[in-house]
Amino acid sequence: MIRAPLGDSSYWNKWVDVQAKTIARKKADLLVPAANPDYEPEYIFSLAQALTEHLIQRYSRGDAVSELGEYLPQIVDAWEKSNQFASAVCEARGVSSCRDWVFSVTDFRHYNWTMWLVSFGLTLSVDDQTWQRLQALVGAEGEDVLLDRLIASRSPDRRIGATLCHKKPYGRLLAAIEAAPADRPALLLDFVSNWYPELKRTGQQRLWWYDWCDVEKTPLEMGNYFGCWCFEAAAAAKVFGIDDHLCLGQPQYPGDIIRPDGPSTHQSTQPLAPAQAPSILGKALGLFGRGTKR
């Protein structure tokens, strides 16, 4: 069953295959020396991005949730290797930082990235070793109360900060977590309903995938759309025991990811064609751009 509200089986089979080949090519590229080693950290990180998109594509296509957990260790591997190469480049240049993108939870793009991966770690019940490695990569202990609360649900020793770095849309999710149990379902729905519109940013804080959810801006035939899912809501529902029944069937709520044994929580097996589809939630550069030729 296709879970995403857009795209038929031909669409999903085609672009899942394309992404699988892109990942294979990137892995092969990394077996040979780069023409410009300074770009190696960014290129390796682009592999982590491609793997993440592939995980989401396969969820959207309707693949078994039990098969998706295999991606997170690979994503963590790529992120770690990217950091290692960045450190080597920095040392060679004699500088303290040599990345051309921001790695901080105060940067909205990076926050979105870490929120996805933490959510996958929680919803897909990744093994302890991978979880610890991911937690070390995310870092930022005590810097964002929501991220801290989510991580602390599995790592109780994590220090909880007092600041929420991105109040839109995440103030709504924090409110749902902190509310009385009877109020939580409606507040979780409030977050899910407002999640996509309140993710909108301009300039360099704009999420690279944001316009891909809108077929008027990015036609489906371009193949960029891999699904637009509020994984952090499902993660919160799972780890904080929030009743998510009001969210089930919402086009952006991935209810199946915390129900791996089914039945599906998604409404229709007949996704909308592009001509029928509104902006359901309201390939330029990647997450941080590739910046290399191999």
Strand and helix layout:
Layout: H1 9-29, H2 40-61, H3 71-93, H4 108-123, H5 128-138, H6 145-152, H7 167-178, H8 184-198, H9 231-239
Helix pairs in contact: 1-2, 2-3, 3-5, 4-5, 4-9, 7-8
How would you portray this structure in words?
By secondary structure, the protein is mainly alpha-helical. The chain has nine helices and no strands. The protein has helices at 9-29, 40-61, 71-93, 108-123, 128-138, 145-152, 167-178, 184-198, 231-239. Helix 1 (9-29) packs antiparallel against helix 2, helix 2 (40-61) runs antiparallel to helix 3 and helix 4 (108-123) runs antiparallel to helix 5. The longest helix has 23 residues, at 71-93. It is globular, with a radius of gyration of 19 Å. The termini are far apart. The model is unreliable at 272-294 (pLDDT under 50).
